[in-house]
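re the bet — no i am not wrong, look at it urself. input seq straight from the record:
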Amino acid sequence: MGSATVTDRSSFMGSGAMSRSSAADAPAPRAAPVVFPAAAARSLTPDSEEDGLTGRFGGRSAIRSAVADPDWRKKLVPTEYERRSCAGMGPRIRAMEIAEARRDPKVVLGDELSGAAGANDAARVRSLLERGADPNHVHFTVCSDVPLCRTKSPEVARLLVEHPQIDVNIKDINDYSILSNMVLHNRANVELVSVLLAHKDLDVHAGRPIKIAARFGTCDMLRTLLEHPKLDINDACGLLHYAVCRTDSASVETVKWLLDHGVDPNLRQDDNGSTALMWVGGWDSLTIEIGEKEAVKRRQIAARQVEILSTLLARSDLDVNATDAQKRTALHRMSVAGRVDLVEVLLQDPRVLPSIWHQDSDGKTPLDAAVEAFEKEKEKKKWEVPAYLSKFEEVIALLKSFAEKKRAELEKLVPGELSKHPGTWSMAVQSL
Protein backbone atom coordinates (compact mmCIF):
# COMPACT_ATOMS: atom_id res chain seq x y z
CA MET A 1 0.00 0.00 0.00
CA GLY A 2 1.38 3.36 -1.00
CA SER A 3 2.15 5.95 1.64
CA ALA A 4 3.33 9.54 1.81
CA THR A 5 5.49 11.58 4.18
CA VAL A 6 4.24 15.01 5.18
CA THR A 7 6.35 17.77 6.70
CA ASP A 8 4.64 20.67 4.90
CA ARG A 9 1.80 21.93 7.14
CA SER A 10 0.37 24.05 4.34
CA SER A 11 -1.79 21.16 3.17
CA PHE A 12 -3.70 21.50 6.45
CA MET A 13 -3.22 25.06 7.64
CA GLY A 14 -3.23 27.05 4.38
CA SER A 15 -0.48 28.11 1.98
CA GLY A 16 0.65 30.90 4.27
CA ALA A 17 1.68 28.48 7.00
CA MET A 18 5.01 27.56 5.34
CA SER A 19 8.01 29.85 5.33
CA ARG A 20 9.12 31.03 1.89
CA SER A 21 12.83 30.96 2.86
CA SER A 22 15.24 28.60 1.19
CA ALA A 23 15.69 25.04 2.33
CA ALA A 24 19.07 25.94 3.84
CA ASP A 25 17.55 28.66 6.00
CA ALA A 26 14.45 26.66 6.95
CA PRO A 27 14.12 25.91 10.68
CA ALA A 28 14.07 22.37 11.96
CA PRO A 29 10.59 20.81 11.91
CA ARG A 30 8.67 20.96 15.18
CA ALA A 31 7.62 17.36 15.01
CA ALA A 32 8.79 14.21 13.34
CA PRO A 33 7.31 13.54 9.90
CA VAL A 34 3.98 11.81 10.03
CA VAL A 35 3.47 8.82 7.77
CA PHE A 36 -0.01 7.90 6.62
CA PRO A 37 -1.52 5.86 3.79
CA ALA A 38 -2.28 7.63 0.56
CA ALA A 39 -5.84 6.41 1.04
CA ALA A 40 -6.45 8.82 3.88
CA ALA A 41 -9.50 11.05 3.35
CA ARG A 42 -12.00 13.31 4.97
CA SER A 43 -15.47 12.09 5.85
CA LEU A 44 -17.04 10.50 2.79
CA THR A 45 -20.01 12.32 1.38
CA PRO A 46 -22.22 11.60 -1.65
CA ASP A 47 -20.27 11.00 -4.86
CA SER A 48 -20.77 14.52 -6.22
CA GLU A 49 -18.72 15.89 -3.31
CA GLU A 50 -16.18 13.08 -3.16
CA ASP A 51 -14.04 14.71 -5.84
CA GLY A 52 -12.74 17.05 -3.14
CA LEU A 53 -10.67 14.17 -1.81
CA THR A 54 -8.21 14.64 -4.68
CA GLY A 55 -5.33 16.76 -3.51
CA ARG A 56 -5.09 16.34 0.24
CA PHE A 57 -4.95 12.58 0.47
CA GLY A 58 -4.86 11.17 -3.02
CA GLY A 59 -8.51 11.00 -4.07
CA ARG A 60 -10.98 8.15 -4.46
CA SER A 61 -8.71 6.04 -6.65
CA ALA A 62 -6.11 5.97 -3.87
CA ILE A 63 -8.74 5.06 -1.30
CA ARG A 64 -10.04 2.19 -3.41
CA SER A 65 -6.59 0.78 -3.97
CA ALA A 66 -5.66 1.15 -0.31
CA VAL A 67 -8.60 -0.82 1.06
CA ALA A 68 -7.53 -3.76 -1.10
CA ASP A 69 -5.09 -4.50 1.71
CA PRO A 70 -7.07 -6.50 4.34
CA ASP A 71 -4.82 -5.10 7.11
CA TRP A 72 -5.31 -1.42 6.24
CA ARG A 73 -6.84 -0.64 9.63
CA LYS A 74 -3.69 -1.74 11.45
CA LYS A 75 -1.48 0.43 9.27
CA LEU A 76 -3.26 3.72 9.79
CA VAL A 77 -1.20 6.47 11.42
CA PRO A 78 -2.84 9.80 12.44
CA THR A 79 -1.81 12.81 10.43
CA GLU A 80 -0.86 16.10 12.02
CA TYR A 81 -4.26 17.47 11.02
CA GLU A 82 -6.01 14.51 12.68
CA ARG A 83 -4.01 14.94 15.86
CA ARG A 84 -5.40 18.47 16.15
CA SER A 85 -8.91 17.58 15.10
CA CYS A 86 -11.63 16.56 17.55
CA ALA A 87 -12.74 13.88 15.09
CA GLY A 88 -9.31 12.28 14.95
CA MET A 89 -9.03 9.49 12.39
CA GLY A 90 -12.78 8.86 12.47
CA PRO A 91 -13.64 10.57 9.14
CA ARG A 92 -10.74 8.85 7.36
CA ILE A 93 -11.71 5.44 8.72
CA ARG A 94 -15.32 6.08 7.79
CA ALA A 95 -14.30 6.96 4.21
CA MET A 96 -12.20 3.83 3.87
CA GLU A 97 -14.90 1.58 5.34
CA ILE A 98 -17.35 2.90 2.77
CA ALA A 99 -14.86 2.36 -0.04
CA GLU A 100 -14.28 -1.17 1.23
CA ALA A 101 -18.01 -1.87 1.32
CA ARG A 102 -18.42 -0.54 -2.21
CA ARG A 103 -16.12 -3.18 -3.56
CA ASP A 104 -19.26 -5.30 -3.48
CA PRO A 105 -21.35 -4.57 -6.61
CA LYS A 106 -24.56 -5.16 -4.61
CA VAL A 107 -23.65 -2.29 -2.28
CA VAL A 108 -23.07 -0.01 -5.26
CA LEU A 109 -26.44 -1.00 -6.73
CA GLY A 110 -28.15 -0.49 -3.36
CA ASP A 111 -26.62 2.95 -2.93
CA GLU A 112 -27.78 3.91 -6.40
CA LEU A 113 -31.28 2.64 -5.57
CA SER A 114 -31.39 4.72 -2.38
CA GLY A 115 -30.28 7.78 -4.31
CA ALA A 116 -32.89 7.22 -7.00
CA ALA A 117 -35.62 6.71 -4.38
CA GLY A 118 -34.58 9.91 -2.63
CA ALA A 119 -34.77 11.73 -5.97
CA ASN A 120 -38.25 10.24 -6.61
CA ASP A 121 -37.01 8.85 -9.94
CA ALA A 122 -39.44 6.00 -10.68
CA ALA A 123 -37.81 5.00 -13.99
CA ARG A 124 -34.38 4.73 -12.40
CA VAL A 125 -35.76 2.76 -9.45
CA ARG A 126 -37.49 0.31 -11.79
CA SER A 127 -34.29 -0.18 -13.77
CA LEU A 128 -32.17 -0.80 -10.67
CA LEU A 129 -34.65 -3.28 -9.23
CA GLU A 130 -34.62 -5.19 -12.52
CA ARG A 131 -30.81 -5.29 -12.32
CA GLY A 132 -31.02 -6.92 -8.90
CA ALA A 133 -30.77 -4.02 -6.43
CA ASP A 134 -31.85 -4.92 -2.89
CA PRO A 135 -35.07 -3.03 -1.96
CA ASN A 136 -34.08 -3.30 1.73
CA HIS A 137 -30.61 -1.81 1.26
CA VAL A 138 -29.37 0.71 3.81
CA HIS A 139 -27.81 3.72 2.10
CA PHE A 140 -24.25 3.47 3.36
CA THR A 141 -23.07 7.04 2.77
CA VAL A 142 -26.05 9.12 3.81
CA CYS A 143 -28.29 7.59 6.46
CA SER A 144 -29.63 4.33 7.86
CA ASP A 145 -32.95 4.53 6.01
CA VAL A 146 -34.07 1.96 3.49
CA PRO A 147 -35.12 3.28 0.05
CA LEU A 148 -38.80 3.13 0.96
CA CYS A 149 -38.19 5.64 3.79
CA ARG A 150 -36.38 8.05 1.50
CA THR A 151 -38.97 8.58 -1.19
CA LYS A 152 -41.93 10.94 -1.30
CA SER A 153 -43.29 9.55 -4.53
CA PRO A 154 -46.28 7.13 -4.38
CA GLU A 155 -45.15 5.67 -7.71
CA VAL A 156 -41.67 4.85 -6.37
CA ALA A 157 -43.17 3.49 -3.15
CA ARG A 158 -45.46 1.23 -5.18
CA LEU A 159 -42.51 -0.20 -7.13
CA LEU A 160 -40.66 -0.97 -3.89
CA VAL A 161 -43.67 -2.35 -2.01
CA GLU A 162 -44.57 -4.68 -4.87
CA HIS A 163 -41.06 -6.16 -4.95
CA PRO A 164 -41.14 -9.79 -3.73
CA GLN A 165 -38.14 -9.30 -1.42
CA ILE A 166 -39.36 -6.14 0.32
CA ASP A 167 -39.48 -6.18 4.12
CA VAL A 168 -42.04 -3.55 5.12
CA ASN A 169 -41.42 -4.00 8.87
CA ILE A 170 -37.74 -2.99 9.04
CA LYS A 171 -36.91 -0.61 11.89
CA ASP A 172 -34.19 2.03 11.97
CA ILE A 173 -31.67 2.71 14.72
CA ASN A 174 -34.31 4.74 16.61
CA ASP A 175 -36.74 1.79 16.53
CA TYR A 176 -38.99 3.62 14.08
CA SER A 177 -40.76 1.48 11.50
CA ILE A 178 -41.02 2.45 7.84
CA LEU A 179 -44.65 3.45 8.37
CA SER A 180 -43.71 5.60 11.38
CA ASN A 181 -41.05 7.40 9.36
CA MET A 182 -43.45 7.94 6.49
CA VAL A 183 -46.07 9.50 8.75
CA LEU A 184 -43.48 11.66 10.50
CA HIS A 185 -41.74 13.01 7.40
CA ASN A 186 -44.75 13.08 5.04
CA ARG A 187 -47.42 14.43 7.36
CA ALA A 188 -49.91 15.31 4.63
CA ASN A 189 -48.92 12.82 1.92
CA VAL A 190 -51.77 10.35 2.48
CA GLU A 191 -51.36 8.81 -0.98
CA LEU A 192 -47.80 7.72 -0.13
CA VAL A 193 -48.84 6.22 3.20
CA SER A 194 -51.82 4.46 1.59
CA VAL A 195 -49.44 2.54 -0.69
CA LEU A 196 -47.65 1.05 2.31
CA LEU A 197 -50.85 0.41 4.26
CA ALA A 198 -52.06 -1.84 1.45
CA HIS A 199 -49.25 -4.37 2.02
CA LYS A 200 -50.62 -7.55 3.57
CA ASP A 201 -47.62 -8.17 5.86
CA LEU A 202 -47.40 -4.68 7.33
CA ASP A 203 -47.31 -4.42 11.13
CA VAL A 204 -49.33 -1.24 11.65
CA HIS A 205 -48.57 -1.16 15.38
CA ALA A 206 -44.76 -1.20 15.17
CA GLY A 207 -43.44 2.20 16.21
CA ARG A 208 -47.02 3.37 16.87
CA PRO A 209 -47.46 5.44 13.72
CA ILE A 210 -50.96 6.37 14.86
CA LYS A 211 -49.45 8.21 17.83
CA ILE A 212 -47.08 10.09 15.52
CA ALA A 213 -50.04 11.11 13.38
CA ALA A 214 -51.85 12.45 16.45
CA ARG A 215 -48.74 14.45 17.40
CA PHE A 216 -47.73 15.82 14.01
CA GLY A 217 -50.03 14.67 11.22
CA THR A 218 -53.10 16.13 9.61
CA CYS A 219 -56.67 14.98 10.16
CA ASP A 220 -56.58 13.39 6.71
CA MET A 221 -53.56 11.35 7.78
CA LEU A 222 -55.39 10.21 10.92
CA ARG A 223 -58.41 9.29 8.84
CA THR A 224 -56.26 7.30 6.40
CA LEU A 225 -54.58 5.34 9.18
CA LEU A 226 -57.78 4.68 11.10
CA GLU A 227 -59.38 3.21 8.00
CA HIS A 228 -57.04 0.25 8.48
CA PRO A 229 -58.95 -2.56 10.23
CA LYS A 230 -56.20 -3.16 12.80
CA LEU A 231 -55.97 0.44 14.05
CA ASP A 232 -58.30 1.85 16.68
CA ILE A 233 -59.05 5.46 17.55
CA ASN A 234 -58.98 4.42 21.22
CA ASP A 235 -55.45 3.03 21.05
CA ALA A 236 -53.92 2.59 24.51
CA CYS A 237 -51.21 5.17 23.76
CA GLY A 238 -53.90 7.86 23.94
CA LEU A 239 -54.35 9.77 20.68
CA LEU A 240 -56.28 12.53 22.42
CA HIS A 241 -53.48 12.89 24.98
CA TYR A 242 -50.94 13.71 22.29
CA ALA A 243 -53.34 15.89 20.33
CA VAL A 244 -53.96 18.23 23.29
CA CYS A 245 -50.18 18.69 23.67
CA ARG A 246 -49.58 19.75 20.09
CA THR A 247 -47.92 23.12 19.73
CA ASP A 248 -48.86 23.80 16.11
CA SER A 249 -51.93 25.60 14.82
CA ALA A 250 -53.71 22.31 14.03
CA SER A 251 -54.05 21.28 17.69
CA VAL A 252 -57.63 22.47 18.20
CA GLU A 253 -58.78 21.02 14.88
CA THR A 254 -57.19 17.65 15.67
CA VAL A 255 -58.78 17.47 19.13
CA LYS A 256 -62.22 18.30 17.75
CA TRP A 257 -61.80 15.78 14.94
CA LEU A 258 -60.93 13.00 17.37
CA LEU A 259 -63.87 13.84 19.64
CA ASP A 260 -66.24 13.92 16.66
CA HIS A 261 -65.03 10.51 15.47
CA GLY A 262 -65.55 8.59 18.68
CA VAL A 263 -62.44 8.91 20.81
CA ASP A 264 -63.05 8.19 24.51
CA PRO A 265 -62.34 11.43 26.44
CA ASN A 266 -61.80 9.43 29.63
CA LEU A 267 -59.36 6.91 28.13
CA ARG A 268 -56.55 6.07 30.55
CA GLN A 269 -53.11 6.21 29.04
CA ASP A 270 -51.28 2.92 29.31
CA ASP A 271 -48.24 4.41 31.08
CA ASN A 272 -49.62 6.03 34.24
CA GLY A 273 -53.39 6.00 33.99
CA SER A 274 -53.71 9.68 33.08
CA THR A 275 -56.55 11.09 31.00
CA ALA A 276 -56.30 13.62 28.18
CA LEU A 277 -57.70 16.33 30.46
CA MET A 278 -54.63 15.98 32.67
CA TRP A 279 -52.38 16.61 29.66
CA VAL A 280 -53.90 19.96 28.76
CA GLY A 281 -51.18 22.52 29.37
CA GLY A 282 -48.41 20.10 28.45
CA TRP A 283 -46.01 20.84 25.60
CA ASP A 284 -44.87 18.66 22.77
CA SER A 285 -41.86 19.68 20.65
CA LEU A 286 -41.79 23.44 20.10
CA THR A 287 -40.41 24.88 16.86
CA ILE A 288 -39.58 28.57 16.64
CA GLU A 289 -39.35 29.63 13.00
CA ILE A 290 -37.06 32.38 11.77
CA GLY A 291 -38.69 35.74 12.45
CA GLU A 292 -40.93 34.40 15.22
CA LYS A 293 -40.70 35.49 18.83
CA GLU A 294 -40.78 32.72 21.39
CA ALA A 295 -42.87 34.66 23.92
CA VAL A 296 -45.50 35.45 21.28
CA LYS A 297 -45.66 31.85 20.11
CA ARG A 298 -46.02 30.52 23.65
CA ARG A 299 -48.94 32.88 24.27
CA GLN A 300 -50.57 31.67 21.07
CA ILE A 301 -50.17 28.05 22.16
CA ALA A 302 -51.59 28.89 25.60
CA ALA A 303 -54.66 30.48 23.98
CA ARG A 304 -55.24 27.31 21.95
CA GLN A 305 -54.88 25.20 25.10
CA VAL A 306 -57.62 27.23 26.77
CA GLU A 307 -59.84 26.53 23.76
CA ILE A 308 -59.00 22.81 23.93
CA LEU A 309 -59.87 22.74 27.63
CA SER A 310 -63.23 24.40 26.95
CA THR A 311 -63.89 21.86 24.19
CA LEU A 312 -63.23 18.96 26.55
CA LEU A 313 -65.33 20.43 29.36
CA ALA A 314 -68.26 20.77 26.95
CA ARG A 315 -68.49 16.99 26.94
CA SER A 316 -71.09 15.77 29.44
CA ASP A 317 -69.37 12.37 29.67
CA LEU A 318 -66.01 13.85 30.73
CA ASP A 319 -64.73 12.70 34.12
CA VAL A 320 -63.34 15.98 35.46
CA ASN A 321 -62.18 14.42 38.75
CA ALA A 322 -60.36 11.40 37.34
CA THR A 323 -57.05 10.55 39.03
CA ASP A 324 -53.82 9.06 37.72
CA ALA A 325 -51.49 6.50 39.32
CA GLN A 326 -50.35 9.13 41.87
CA LYS A 327 -53.97 10.08 42.62
CA ARG A 328 -53.50 13.50 41.03
CA THR A 329 -56.39 15.18 39.28
CA ALA A 330 -56.32 17.56 36.32
CA LEU A 331 -56.63 20.43 38.80
CA HIS A 332 -53.48 19.19 40.55
CA ARG A 333 -51.50 19.23 37.34
CA MET A 334 -52.65 22.61 36.14
CA SER A 335 -52.03 24.13 39.56
CA VAL A 336 -48.51 22.69 39.75
CA ALA A 337 -47.83 24.17 36.31
CA GLY A 338 -48.97 27.59 37.55
CA ARG A 339 -51.39 27.94 34.65
CA VAL A 340 -53.93 30.37 36.05
CA ASP A 341 -55.63 30.67 32.67
CA LEU A 342 -56.44 26.95 32.68
CA VAL A 343 -57.32 26.81 36.39
CA GLU A 344 -59.85 29.63 35.94
CA VAL A 345 -61.62 27.77 33.15
CA LEU A 346 -61.58 24.47 35.04
CA LEU A 347 -63.02 25.99 38.22
CA GLN A 348 -65.98 27.33 36.26
CA ASP A 349 -67.16 23.75 35.76
CA PRO A 350 -69.35 22.73 38.75
CA ARG A 351 -68.21 19.12 38.41
CA VAL A 352 -64.71 20.03 39.59
CA LEU A 353 -65.75 20.72 43.21
CA PRO A 354 -64.49 17.38 44.65
CA SER A 355 -61.03 18.07 43.21
CA ILE A 356 -60.62 21.20 45.34
CA TRP A 357 -60.01 19.19 48.49
CA HIS A 358 -58.83 15.94 46.92
CA GLN A 359 -55.46 14.74 48.20
CA ASP A 360 -52.94 12.96 46.01
CA SER A 361 -50.74 10.04 47.10
CA ASP A 362 -48.52 12.51 49.01
CA GLY A 363 -51.49 13.95 50.87
CA LYS A 364 -51.44 17.27 48.98
CA THR A 365 -54.46 19.16 47.68
CA PRO A 366 -54.11 21.23 44.48
CA LEU A 367 -53.47 24.29 46.68
CA ASP A 368 -50.72 22.49 48.61
CA ALA A 369 -49.14 21.30 45.38
CA ALA A 370 -49.20 24.81 43.89
CA VAL A 371 -47.54 26.29 46.99
CA GLU A 372 -44.82 23.63 46.88
CA ALA A 373 -44.22 24.23 43.16
CA PHE A 374 -43.98 27.97 43.78
CA GLU A 375 -41.34 27.45 46.45
CA LYS A 376 -39.29 25.26 44.10
CA GLU A 377 -39.59 27.86 41.36
CA LYS A 378 -38.23 30.57 43.67
CA GLU A 379 -35.25 28.36 44.53
CA LYS A 380 -34.20 27.95 40.90
CA LYS A 381 -30.87 29.34 39.83
CA LYS A 382 -30.66 32.08 37.24
CA TRP A 383 -29.42 29.66 34.59
CA GLU A 384 -32.17 27.10 35.16
CA VAL A 385 -35.13 27.02 32.78
CA PRO A 386 -38.08 28.94 34.26
CA ALA A 387 -41.68 27.73 34.26
CA TYR A 388 -42.99 29.58 31.22
CA LEU A 389 -46.46 31.13 31.45
CA SER A 390 -46.63 30.28 35.17
CA LYS A 391 -48.32 32.64 37.60
CA PHE A 392 -48.17 30.74 40.86
CA GLU A 393 -49.23 33.61 43.12
CA GLU A 394 -52.41 34.11 41.12
CA VAL A 395 -53.14 30.38 41.10
CA ILE A 396 -52.69 30.14 44.87
CA ALA A 397 -54.91 33.16 45.49
CA LEU A 398 -57.56 31.80 43.13
CA LEU A 399 -57.61 28.36 44.76
CA LYS A 400 -57.84 29.86 48.25
CA SER A 401 -60.71 32.20 47.40
CA PHE A 402 -62.58 29.48 45.52
CA ALA A 403 -62.24 27.01 48.41
CA GLU A 404 -63.46 29.60 50.95
CA LYS A 405 -66.40 30.50 48.74
CA LYS A 406 -67.44 26.87 48.36
CA ARG A 407 -67.09 26.21 52.10
CA ALA A 408 -69.42 29.10 52.82
CA GLU A 409 -71.94 27.77 50.32
CA LEU A 410 -71.75 24.25 51.74
CA GLU A 411 -72.29 25.46 55.31
CA LYS A 412 -75.70 26.76 54.29
CA LEU A 413 -76.69 23.42 52.78
CA VAL A 414 -77.30 21.53 56.01
CA PRO A 415 -78.64 18.01 55.32
CA GLY A 416 -82.03 17.20 56.84
CA GLU A 417 -80.54 14.57 59.12
CA LEU A 418 -78.31 17.24 60.73
CA SER A 419 -80.85 20.08 60.86
CA LYS A 420 -80.87 19.88 64.65
CA HIS A 421 -77.07 19.80 64.77
CA PRO A 422 -75.86 22.52 62.36
CA GLY A 423 -72.59 22.86 64.26
CA THR A 424 -71.62 19.31 63.36
CA TRP A 425 -72.17 20.03 59.68
CA SER A 426 -70.22 23.29 59.91
CA MET A 427 -67.27 21.52 61.52
CA ALA A 428 -67.34 18.89 58.78
CA VAL A 429 -67.29 21.54 56.06
CA GLN A 430 -64.48 23.50 57.72
CA SER A 431 -62.38 20.35 57.89
CA LEU A 432 -62.30 20.20 54.09
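see?? The CA atoms of residues 309 and 315 lie 10 Å apart. told u. also Residues 294-313 form the longest helix (20 residues). so pay up
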